[in-house]
Amino acid sequence: MEPRPPETECEFDAVVIGAGFGGLYMLHRLRSLGLTVRVYEAGGGVGGTWYWNRYPGARCDVESMQYSYSFSEELEQEWEWSEKYSPQPEILKYANHVADKFNLHDNIYLSTRVERAVFDENKNLWFIHTDRGDRVSSQFCVMAVGCLSAANIPQFEKLECFNGDIYHTGEWPHGGVDFTGKNVGVIGTGSSAIQSIPIIAQQAKSLKVFQRTPNYAVPAWNSKMDPGYEKEVKANYPELRAKARSRPAGVYFPFNFQPAVEASESERLSKYEEFWKRGGLPFLGAFGDLLFNAESNETAAEFARKKIREIVKDPITADLLCPQNTFGCKRLCVDTGYFEVFNEPHVSLIDISEKPIQEFFENGIIHDEENYQLDSVVFATGFAAMTGSFDKIEIRGRNGLSLIDKWAAGPRTYLGLSTAMFPNFFMITGPGSPSVLASMIQSIEQHVDWIVDCIGHLRDIGAHTIEPIDKYEDDWVEHVNEVSKISLRSTCSSWYVGANIPGKPRVFMPYIGGFPVYVDRCNDVMTKGFEGFLIDGKRPEPLMPKIRFTERWRVTLDKDVMSPADLAATRGPVL
Ligand code: N01
Fold it and tell me: Is ligand 1 within 6 A of the CB of residue 61?
């Protein structure tokens, strides 16, 4: 941690918490508005998720040419991705390149964790405290803390007795880990486990995978970047970005609108094979109703189970690896050689679905009265999603209300951008926005542009504060809940509903109505003069300055013929 004196008595226009893709772009945009900005970042470098998640095999499940910023044509054209799906080190390099290119480093204080953010109603300022002794104030406080940043480390009995090494995939050591000759245990079988297990298995002497719930995974078929494809995309980037923005997931891939229930069995199989060969999340586009109709969904689920049984030779292990829940209900995983690993003699699957892990002991894990001798244990146990990073900071709004108390029964936001009683407080990809159900960088850019246009407007009219009106927030929360019911996604116990964290209220947190529907709603609110927000302290002027609007987010929806639910159901899958 580099030494620096704490900053005190400083007043900024805006403080941004987090220097991942959200914080970096927010800083760039706010600075171009002429604002003074300080960014605090807990990590020792920029990149957020991609700074922390360095586990072996970590890579993005959205293809590289689309998982990138779209705000700078020069950046789009100059950056070269080496693979179809980028590995973590390359995405981190990209984040650093962006920070260098746009001279962002000077405004970012690294290795600094914000501990408190408290709104002073008399001064209309946020007072921010960090673990490095910083005490600063700012008119605006922007949370760019990410959706999957608070590691979930379950409190297993006697964990502290274990003499071996413990790792969490989301807090991986920066020097890397060499498992050569080690007896390794992995707890969890979500995306992080499914990506890391094949690599860990190559090194480990033995590998035990402790599985509570099996997951569906579609092969990535990752490859070196095809230069012809890269050239074509770069020649037509604006068109590709526009097509992506018009899709529910904010990412473009071929999509078949036909419902699976209306296809014959042979048509279905051939479509599934076609989309399986494409691989990854786009498999969800094989039919239009996979996430809306249980009968259709089961046809995809059985297809995926058949693939597992074809790969895994031991029928008992194969059965255990076959999920029985709704296909794609939890976030679909994308794999490279995951199921194949279970044919290796030194890899075994321990089913903990009926009996949970009993406890740790000094040399490993005890399950069902059996002692598993382990040198290292990898927690691939996920995150306190969407709200976990907010909970780590003491955030207080009007009347000293804490955000944790306000969200005790589940997060309440207006558009996932702001929350009543917390003036001048913005969230990038907050709960109640599409966030994790869309390509994250698209979601981030849209939020940042909206917030910056909003802040620009407040400055134009000389206003002091903006905050949502309760009724509009209540309506939005209700709408987010209502829309979630159209999707099978709301039916299973996933991190989308907080089910992975004991005691967390069960609420479907992201907005599932589709990215373009959501963007249209944000635009509507803005162009109606920030409908649903209370703006205080504006100058009395005869002429209201024109509202700022970032043109690339203009979407055209035929609202007369379709409700948001219809749109979501007919326009294809969210991620
Ligand atoms: O976490 P998870 P993740 N005892 O929550 C198990 C994104 N991501 O880090 O299902 C035993 O999915 C838990 O079991 P169960 C992506 O959006 C993206 O893998 O709750 N087991 C589950 O198997 C992803 O969805 C990428 O029964 C316990 C596992 O731990 C999200 O991050 C790569 C347990 C956690 O799975 C999270 O993925 C990686 C306990 N007490 C991640 N508690 C890409 O872009 C939890 N588990 C490719």
Answer: yes
